From TrEMBL:
It comes from the Bacteria. Residues 35-200 form the Uracil-DNA glycosylase-like domain. InterPro entries: UDG_Type-4/5 (IPR051536), Ura-DNA_glyco_family4 (IPR005273), Uracil-DNA_glycosylase-like (IPR005122), Uracil-DNA_glycosylase-like_sf (IPR036895). This is Type-4 uracil-DNA glycosylase. Pfam families: UDG (PF03167). Belongs to the uracil-DNA glycosylase (UDG) superfamily. Type 4 (UDGa) family. NCBIfam families: UDG_fam4 (TIGR00758), UDG_fam_dom (TIGR03914). Keywords: 4Fe-4S, DNA damage, DNA repair, Hydrolase, Iron, Iron-sulfur, Metal-binding.
Length: 209
């Protein structure tokens, strides 16, 4: 089946085509493809790592515990989620089989899996052409900024979007932690405050803010 996005397709057509993508093996165990969601003219696109357990079941990005925390942080940062296009670097859930009665456990996608899914992410960027891309977590950041990118070194910085992607119309990019990292943080309050501060910086970098 297809591993490449169709040319000149709009977001709805891309979403439909992505459901047929067998570019890596993750589709075999995932419930469904979880494509991006949000306005096609969004000024901000947020890119996470991959769908989680609840996203895989619902078919929508950021609807689980990390998504609910993200919603709260966006509100505290003065950003309306309805104005943001949400997606992931990888469109299928990678997980360990669950023990009886327990939630399936997320596994980090391999570099090969991220690269296999990158054409779909670039296609989304090309259609939406946001002013700013916000990468949530190291996997998302490295998918667009390269494997040498260090989140600990450049967190919260507003950077020029890499020219080597070949995607015009996207001006800038920034990276912060994934909201799931806040749920695991020893000092959740401090981690949350720093996350909201990063989102406020991102909001301020968008024209009209």
């Amino acid at each position: 089946m297809t591993a490449d996005p169709p040319d000149n397709a709009d977001l709805d057509q891309l979403r439909e085509a992505a459901c047929q993508c067998h570019g890596c093996d993750l589709y075999q165990d995932a419930t469904q493809t979880v494509f991006g969601a949000g306005p096609s003219n969004a000024a901000v696109m947020m890119v996470g790592e991959q769908p989680g357990d609840q996203e895989d079941r619902a078919g929508e990005p950021f609807v689980g515990p990390a998504g609910r925390l993200l919603d709260k942080a966006l509100a505290d940062a003065g950003i309306d989620r309805q104005d943001v296009y949400m997606t992931n670097a990888v469109k299928h859930f990678k997980f360990k089989p669950a023990e009886r009665g327990k939630r399936r456990i997320h596994q980090t996608p391999s570099r090969t899996e991220v690269v296999a899914c990158k054409p779909w992410l670039l296609a989304e960027l090309d259609r939406v052409q946001p002013e700013l891309v916000v990468c949530l977590g190291a996997t998302a950041a490295k998918s667009l900024l390269g494997p040498s990118f260090r989140l600990t070194r450049h967190r919260g910085e507003i950077l020029e979007f890499p020219e080597n992607t070949g995607k015009s119309g996207v001006a800038r990019i920034t990276a912060t932690v994934h909201p799931s990292a806040i749920l695991r943080a020893p000092d959740r309050d401090a981690a949350y405050s720093a996350f909201v501060a990063d989102l406020k910086t991102a909001s301020g970098a968008v024209k009209g803010k």
